[in-house]
Amino acid sequence: MVDTISTDRRSWNMSRIGSRNTKPELLLRSLLHRAGFRFRLHSKDLPGRPDIVLPKYRVAIFVHGCFWHRHSACKNATMPSTRTEFWTKKFEDNVERDIRNREALEEAGWTVLTAWECELKENRDDVVLRISETIRGG
């Protein structure tokens, strides 16, 4: 697939993609709040600054974009056709950092969950049910 916009415009678009308060994250926060859970956001004192933290249950939730965090077997985890060496390294670094953060949190006694962007689009009720069952122990 050929990019239909200029390199400068593509660069500008990519630079505007934020890491906090994304649509999937806002959706999950809303769903969890409606389910009765109260949480903190982006705790600076925890490895990786999880997107959602439920201190009462020692649960940390990362809301990952499929493209940036390489959700395996997901149609959204595409590889850009240009600068593939750069993107390969970028994606590998993201995945390695995710693993390090997860391990550090688990070693500190936290339960770590990941909610994927595509799951929230396609099966939001299942995501909330999975999180609820994990939190409530069953």
Whole-number average pLDDT?
Answer: 88
Per the CATH scheme, the topology name is Endonuclease, Chain A
Widest beta sheet: strand line-up: 1-2-3-4
Number of domains: 1
Helical proportion, percent range: 40-55%
Q: Summarize the biggest pleated sheet.
A: 4 strands, mixed
Number of strands: 4
What is the 3D form?
globular
The CATH class designation is Alpha Beta
**What pattern of helices and strands is seen along the backbone?**
HHEEEHHEHH
Terminus-to-terminus distance: 45 Å
| Helix-strand makeup class | alpha+beta
Count of helices? 6
- CATH architecture assignment name: 3-Layer(aba) Sandwich
Measured by DSSP, the beta-strand proportion falls in: 5-15%
Uncertain spans: none
> Which value, in Å, is the CA radius of gyration?
16 Å
Which superfamily, in CATH terms, is the homologous superfamily? VSR Endonuclease
EC number: 3.1.-.-
Family: Belongs to the vsr family.
Function: May nick specific sequences that contain T:G mispairs resulting from m5C-deamination.
Organism: Rhizobium leguminosarum
Structural notes for this entry:
This protein is an alpha+beta fold and 138 residues long. A hairpin with a 4-residue loop joins strand 2 (52-54) and strand 3 (59-64). The chain has one domain (20-135): Endonuclease, Chain A, CATH 3.40.960. The termini are far apart. The protein is built from six helices and four strands, in the order H-H-E-E-E-H-H-E-H-H. It has helices at residues 7-15, 23-34, 66-69, 84-107, 117-122, 124-135; strands at 40-41, 52-54, 59-64, 111-116. Helices cover 49% and strands 12% of the residues. May nick specific sequences that contain T:G mispairs resulting from m5C-deamination. Its EC number is 3.1.-.-.
